[in-house]
Amino acid sequence: MVKVFIIDDSKDFINSAIKLLTEEGIEVIGYAYSGKEGIESLQNLNPDIVFVDIVMPDMDGFSVIKELKKLNNPFKTVILTLYDNDEYRKVSEEIADGFVSKSDFFSKIKEILEGILREEKKKTIYKK
After folding, report:
1. Which residue among 19, 26, 31, 94 is the one 20 to 30 A from 3 at the CA level?
2. Rounded distance, CA 74 to CA 68, Å?
């Protein structure tokens, strides 16, 4: 079973994502409402995929992923955002294993997970 962790400051998004992922047979092993909380929690957890929002009050998602990559855990990271633009996509390609807009998250979750979990060199980027 695929295990995921979600870092997002939107409680509504996290609740909706947990519901969808659970319905799809995916285990949500945790979530955090801030980057710092997520980094702290992930020091003791081992998910397959971590979804990280870009815009959060304490630290941005790119900084969170840079910190997560320093941990010994071999999980994949996926940028989540409401703000789908070329700048965010470019940075995501450099530091994350995938990128998805929140509007596509719910309709493409199976495709997202399959793409991220494949052992391919290319990045998984989802467009509208």
Report:
1. 94
2. 10
pTM beyond 0.90: no
Determine the angle formed by the axes of helices 61-68 and 86-95, rounding to 10 degrees. Answer: 10
- Collapsed DSSP state (helix, strand, coil) of residue 28: strand
Helix (H, G, I), strand (E, B) or coil at 117: helix
- At 98, the pLDDT band (50, 70, 90 cuts) reads confident
Instruction: Please give the Cα distance from 92 to 79 (Å, whole number).
Output: 7
Residue 79: closest CA among 58, 63, 66, 97:
97
Tell me the C-alpha distance between 85 and 33, whole Å.
Answer: 23
Provide the domain count of the chain: 1
User: Has residue 34 got a pLDDT over 80?
Assistant: yes
% of the chain residues with pLDDT over 70 = 92
Q: How many helices (H) and strands (E) does the chain have?
A: 6, 6
Q: Where in the sequence is the domain holding 34, given as residue range(s)? A: 3-125
Q: How far apart are CA 98 and CA 95, in angstroms?
A: 9
